[in-house]
Amino acid sequence: MSVNSITTNNNPVLQPPGGQQMGQSDFLRLMTAQLSQQDPFNPVDNQQMVAQMAQFSSLAGISETNTTLQKISEQLTAQTALLKDIKAATPPANNPTT
Length: 98
Prior knowledge:
It is a single chain. By secondary structure, this protein is mainly α. The chain is built from two helices and no strands. It has helices at about 25-35, 45-90.
């Protein structure tokens, strides 16, 4: 039985175009390739596979949360600027002294 070295060019390396981050479809493609190339007499441990899927799911949730928080931050910044503009445009109230 021969084993290919990991330094040979027989092992394809998947890289997204333009150096972009990998997404869910990339992960599923890699997982499918991993499953199709595994040794049927020594399959991938189910716990490892579930752990990988859980990590990716967690990462996707964190990414979505970061995007949402960024949008909220932008809206708060815009509202703060608008309130400052309104305050600057409003004439000061007359305070009668008694």
